[in-house]
Amino acid sequence: MPTLLRLLLSFSFSVVALPQLQAAASSILQASSSFSAGIDTLQNQIGYHFQSVDLLRRAMTHSSFSRDNNRALSLLGLSAMEATAAFSLLRDDPEASAAAVNGRIAEIAGFETCSAAGNRLGIEKLVRVASGTTASPAIVCGALRAMFGAISVDAGGIDAVGKVVLRVVGSGLLLAG
Length: 177
Hints:
Elements: H1 2-46, H2 53-59, H3 71-92, H4 98-109, H5 111-120, H6 123-126, H7 137-155, H8 159-176
Helix pairs in contact: 2-7, 3-4, 3-7, 3-8, 5-7, 5-8, 7-8
Signal peptide: 1-17
Organism: Apostasia shenzhenica
GO molecular function, one term: ribonuclease III activity
């Protein structure tokens, strides 16, 4: 008899908890669907479509949200931004001074430019952060840099990312200038 009673209690608990579990699952699916739609929109905005969308998902994941986050991709993205800035200046002016190259790097890869470009793309609404954490300018900039790093990995080099950097960040400089 005690086994039958435990079985009945277990069944009744499952029936009572089922609506709550279904509501939680529905909420998770809706958030996931919204995130996927945001990822699609972002790819359209930047003019680059990932072969491995998981790289972009990781780029839009802050370390407060998951151990599988954007930190390493952000470092690569910063380097790609700096290389793009230096290359674009030296391509146009092979005689540019080191100070001019440093200035161009600061202009393209600097924090304020980076966070402003990320906000123009709506990254502050897309980047996944822990509950109670807001998408600060630093988090937005890190996610944008990580996106550039993800493009480098996805494309197998920094050539593809240079065009996207100049399109995304360069367009903001042209608008501001």
